[in-house]
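#onboarding

Welcome to the new folks! Below is a worked example of what a typical request in this channel looks like: someone posts a single protein sequence, and someone else replies with the predicted structure as tokens. Don't worry about understanding the tokens yet, we'll cover that in week two.

Example request:
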Amino acid sequence: MPRSPEPDRPRTFGGDFRVFFIKGLAILLPSVLTLWIVVQLFLFVQTRVAEPINVGIRFAVIQLAPKILPASQQPEWFVVTDEQVQRLKDERARLAQRPVPEAVLRAQIRERNLKEFWDEHWYLRGIGLLVAVVLIYLAGRFLGGYIGRRVYGRLERFFARLPVVKQVYPHVKQVVEFLFGERDRIKFNRVVLVEYPRRGIWTVGLMTGDSMRAIEGVARHECVTVFIPSSPTPFTGYTITVKREDALDLPITVEEALRFVVTGGVLVPESQTPTAEDRRRLAESARGAKMGDGSAGAGRAAG
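Example response:
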């Protein structure tokens, strides 16, 4: 006796709230996480890179101001009054700090005044970031030359001998080279589809080039090398060798393949999203293949 269909459950506020909350979270979370990452990256660069440079610039300004400008043209933040010196002395006395010469106190007050003046003008805070960008550019130009490559090579060999750094530096370098596109070191020719780790399981891979001659001699076929990236960290994975005819080309870019891997298959390239018509043709093809197998089996049984 067929089972009667279960009646629809009544909708409740708690159920609706849970459904729409999850939907809202799924929609907003990528944007919120992206914004958070960008903000954290900016704060890291501002506090760990730009601000130390700003400190050095302010120190240089304090040292050069009295040598360049006459006393009548010195900026307001450079002028230190006796009242400010006395307040700083009283503050140090309350904190039980040892006394220091008055020249040191005046230098500390100038540093504090310049810091306040610096923070009041937002464009001055960007000087450190601008200097950092210029320094990175100059470093790239220098390291791209013959002398720079020699110096960088010696520096890398020095890092390779340090007890703790040598376990971390090579992996960090590999990640950076992968993310920033060191095409001369990691080059993917095209995206391919291979049956890995066994027949019947199809895996997206990145063809890196031809295989080794010794491997082709053992396989007795022309082979290629394929890198199988892992999810969600595509800079790690496995390197396999397959016959050239077993590596099927996929009509997608390397960037689309990496997004597919990083998201665990959630972000499918738009050109590769199956349509209802595709599903229908596949179903008809599967039914036809099944009927053909059944007819062949019946013929063998009759024979």
